[in-house]
Amino acid sequence: MNKRVLSALSIAAVLTLSACGGNQDDAGPQEENDKNQQTEMDHSNMDHSSSGEIPDGLMDAENPTYPVDSKALIKDGHMAGMKGAEATIVGAYDTVAYIVSYTPEDGGERVENHKWIIHEEFPDAGEEPLQPGTEIETDADHMSGMDGAAVEIVSGEETTVYMIDYTPTDGSEKVENHKWVTEEELEAIE
């Protein structure tokens, strides 16, 4: 074979191999984080909008960082189109917010690290915050198969949670009365 043909074949082989390899290894930290977040928290069957009803015993926050009717930027969304969207605050409440894992009552796949179920959405929780590893039934209905499911508490934090309205950045329909985002997931709009 002549040198031109060998050179062309070598270049074609290098280009082919570089196009096929390394996609995961070359992923940036944010891209890898987004992949992990989607794997851990698939919210595709989440009821993004709600009636706006709040659980019994949930108390309004006395002095929230983001008062009702104010605007904030969602800086850490847990669903597609949420991150970067502008939120209107519908309600602000002081409570304990939990990350939970559970198997849906409707037979769906196990959900890992769902954000957020609040203390008042556990009818048998009592007054004290729940500890990691606790298994307890919820009456939250944010996702299909959640209401009545036995969930495992992964972690919990005392915080202000917000019910918000927002229009997703991915062009989806406006979401009303979304439950819940925490104060750390919001950012002031300047």
Walk me through what this model shows.
Helices cover 16% and strands 33% of the residues. It has 2 domains: 3-39; 41-188, SH3 type barrels. Residues 1-45 have low confidence and may be disordered. Strands 1, 2, 3, 4, 5, 6, 7 and 8 form an 8-stranded antiparallel beta sheet that branches. By secondary structure, it is an alpha+beta fold.
Question: How are the elements arranged and paired?
Answer:
Layout: H1 3-20, H2 29-40, E1 59-60, E2 71-74, E3 86-102, E4 111-118, E5 135-137, E6 150-166, E7 175-182, E8 186-188
Antiparallel strand pairs: 1-3, 2-3, 2-8, 3-4, 3-6, 5-6, 6-7
Q: Structural class per helix/strand content?
A: alpha+beta
- In whole angstroms, the N-to-C terminal distance is 66 Å
The geometry reads as: globular
What profile does the largest beta sheet have?
Answer: 8 strands, antiparallel
CATH topology of the largest domain: SH3 type barrels
Q: Fraction of residues in helices?
A: 10-25%
| CATH architecture title of the largest domain | Roll
What's the total number of strands?
8
Observed structural traits:
2 helices, alpha+beta, 190 residues, 8-stranded antiparallel beta sheet, 2 domains, disordered N terminus, SH3 type barrels
At a glance:
With 190 residues, the protein is an alpha+beta fold. Helices cover 16% and strands 33% of the residues.
